[in-house]
Automatic annotation (TrEMBL):
Pfam families: PaaA_PaaC. It comes from Arthrobacter globiformis (strain ATCC 8010 / DSM 20124 / JCM 1332 / NBRC 12137 / NCIMB 8907 / NRRL B-2979 / 168). NCBIfam families: PA_CoA_Oxy1 (TIGR02156). One of its GO terms (molecular function) is phenylacetyl-CoA 1,2-epoxidase activity. Residues 1-27 are annotated as: Disordered. PANTHER family: 1,2-PHENYLACETYL-COA EPOXIDASE, SUBUNIT A (PTHR30458:SF2), PHENYLACETIC ACID DEGRADATION PROTEIN PAA (PTHR30458). Transmembrane segments: none annotated. The gene is paaA. This is Putative phenylacetate-CoA oxygenase subunit PaaA. Residues 10-27 have a biased composition (Low complexity). One of its GO terms (cellular component) is cytosol. The lineage of its organism: Bacteria, Bacillati, Actinomycetota, Actinomycetes, Micrococcales. GO terms for biological process: phenylacetate catabolic process.
């Protein structure tokens, strides 16, 4: 489909003495044409690209969601990086390092996708370290034992896959394409988590107990990753109408529970939820109540690890200042060389 962008619409000639109204009219016409193009793309379930006209609210929603997602990937490195030096074998260490590096890569794809909407990565990072931006609630919980690496991989990455596979079809091109790459890597992450738990579950009674304890602690926070219940989700309706979200928060949560029910049997462990059942009437999986007050507290910055996560992020940002300065100096030198060569 041919892209409709603002630059491609010819300027309206301004009538002498009536410059302002003509400019207004031209602008109004541009907006109307842009809106018509946007509506058609959305109704055809096609893609909006960065140079296309888009409503300001669509841009804002995408920036909100993609930047929050990018921050989640970067902050999400912390609970796992904390265990790299304590991994039980060289093989486990290598796998965990690769996974944490993948998360950094996911952050970079997503910051790049967000930048196409007109906000700089520096600004997004400043918002994060100033505590103004959100990131996923899940990363405000502590990773207490090695088994938590298994539970994070299996439950947290499992929830991420469930939520993110539909985002591969998001209407904004750069976001959807970034999600395709991310989801491939998330599958490996979930398998490595599953495999850690399986090994512990088949180990000594103490190891099996450690795996069960980790699953018990990460289960409810993982379910809350999908966001508030549909009735309390202010953004869902519009995001669904714009083909950003494809399924509701509750719908995805229910699917996730169904996936976990099957897999936990293979693990030889149990879900800490006696109310999990398949409702034959609705054809949906149901789970026990979640503590949405706890969720709100975490979002308000009062979770178990919120301040620790942000403090670590700030420190890493400060520690990396010399790298950014060196990269900027190198880029400047290169551009001077190019100019000299061209002159
Ligand atoms: N945590 O109207 P709603 C990963 C906020 S990374 C914090 O339903 P929406 C991984 C929401 O932002 C996982 N905040 O919102 C990384 C909104 O607040 P604002 C990250 C949450 O956007 C490393 C308010 O609550 N995944 O898996 O329609 C290692 C109302 O919610 C949360 C993504 O970011 C939460 N859990 O739906 C391992 C996926 N839930 O902005 C693993 C992309 C809700 O209005 N994002 N809020 O102030 C999405 O799919 C959607 O943004 C959400 C929320 C489903 C999360």
């Amino acid at each position: 489909m041919a892209a409709q962008n603002l630059q491609s619409v010819p300027d309206q000639p301004a009538a002498p003495g009536a410059a302002a109204p003509a400019a207004d009219q031209g602008q109004a016409q541009l907006e109307a044409e842009g809106q018509a193009y946007f509506d058609r793309v959305i109704s055809e379930d096609s893609r909006i690209e960065p140079r296309d006209w888009m409503p300001a609210a669509y841009r804002k929603t995408l920036l909100r969601q993609i930047s929050q997602h990018a921050h989640s990937e970067i902050i999400g490195m912390q609970p796992e990086a904390n265990w790299i030096s304590r991994a039980p074998s060289l093989k486990r260490k290598a796998i965990l390092m690769a996974k944490v590096q993948d998360e950094a890569g996911h952050g970079l794809y997503l910051y790049s996708a967000a930048e196409t909407l007109g906000q700089s990565r520096d600004q997004m990072m400043d918002d994060l370290i100033a505590g103004k931006a959100r990131y996923s609630s899940i990363f405000n919980y502590p990773a207490l034992t090695w088994a938590d690496m298994g539970a994070i991989g299996w439950l947290v990455d499992g929830a991420a896959i469930c939520n993110q596979v539909p985002l591969c079809r998001a209407s904004y091109g750069p976001y959807g394409r970034a999600m395709v790459r991310i989801c491939k890597e998330e599958s490996f992450h979930q398998r490595q988590g599953f495999e850690i738990l399986l090994e512990l579950s088949n180990g000594t009674p103490a190891q099996k107990q450690m795996a069960q304890d980790a699953v018990n602690r990460w289960y409810a926070p993982a379910l809350m990753m999908f966001g508030p219940p549909d009735d309390d989700s202010p953004n869902s309706k519009q995001s669904t109408a714009w083909n950003i979200k494809r399924f509701s928060n509750d719908e995805l949560r229910s699917r996730f529970v169904g996936m976990m029910v099957e897999q936990v049997r293979v693990l030889g462990l149990t879900l800490p939820d006696s109310e999990v059942r398949f409702n034959e009437d609705t054809r949906k999986w149901e789970h026990g109540p979640l503590d949405w007050n706890e969720f709100k507290e975490v979002l308000a910055g009062r979770g178990p690890c919120n301040s620790q996560r942000l403090e670590r992020r700030r420190q890493a940002h400060d520690d990396g200042a010399w790298v950014r300065e060196a990269a900027a100096a190198y880029a400047h030198k290169q551009s001077m060389k190019t100019k000299e060569f061209a002159a």
